[in-house]
Design goal:
single chain, alpha+beta, Pnp Oxidase, Chain A, seven-stranded antiparallel β-sheet, four-stranded antiparallel β-sheet, about 20% helix, Pyridox_Oxase-rel
């Protein structure tokens, strides 16, 4: 069973690829680590890649209290857009025109909010656990000065449009193409590589559990998912 939402915006080109499936949206956001935040600053568009985490019906972002553009946008209540895209494969058709990509993408529009001070620690922990699962338990806790120098922002998943494509190339037995030309899909698989210790890490230092869990799954490199 899926939960549908009524997005404020509709896709006009290939509208059949739009989905309002909330679970598909959550799956996309939970499978990626980086999105792109866009805002107009003094009439100039600015786009910045940022690590993020989904917590419930919000996307969490963080930045310095020193005056990053995201914090300024939040303070000024400027509308922003945040987009996330997963490329799942290349679709090889029998013409370049019909070739395509398999993908999932979502764009969230709204106004950034500053997470209240009494929720900052939990929000920073949620971000850290999403980006580096298990790592917070292996390192020292955050100094208050570090927390004070960081602002966590959140963007509600209220105004979202999601588009996706899956499957092989469009083809029909009588489409007039030469079917002796290969057509199909090349899936894209991303994997974490072997851990590389820092220069100041003493030789023989055990690799922590969080790194082992990320870099190996059943003896194979771990994917982002």
């Amino acid at each position: 069973m899926t939960t549908a939402t009524a997005p404020a915006r509709r896709i006009r080109r290939l509208p059949d690829r739009q989905t309002t499936d909330r679970f598909a949206l959550h799956d996309l956001l939970d499978s990626e680590l980086v999105g792109h935040l866009a805002v107009a600053v003094d009439g100039v568009p600015v786009i910045v890649p940022m690590g993020y985490a989904r917590v419930g019906e919000h996307v969490l972002l963080h930045g310095s209290t020193g005056g990053g553009f995201a914090l300024r946008a939040a303070s000024a209540r400027r509308p922003v857009a945040f987009s996330v895209t997963a490329l799942d494969g290349l679709v090889y058709a029998r013409s370049l025109f019909d070739s395509s990509m398999n993908y999932r993408s979502a764009t969230v529009q709204g106004v950034l909010e500053v997470v209240p001070a009494d929720e900052t620690d939990a929000a920073l922990l949620a971000l850290s656990e999403r980006l580096m699962p298990g790592r917070p338990a292996e390192v020292r806790g955050m100094h208050r000065k570090e927390v004070a120098a960081t602002r966590v922002l959140r963007l509600a998943l209220d105004d979202v449009v999601m588009k996706q494509r899956s499957g092989g190339p469009s083809e029909e037995p009588d489409d007039g193409e030469d079917h002796s030309t290969w057509a199909g899909v090349v899936p894209l698989e991303r994997r974490w590589g072997a851990p590389i210790a820092s220069g100041l890490t003493p030789a023989g230092t055990p690799v922590p559990d969080s790194v082992i869990a990320l870099s190996t799954v059943n003896g194979a490199d771990a994917t982002l998912r």
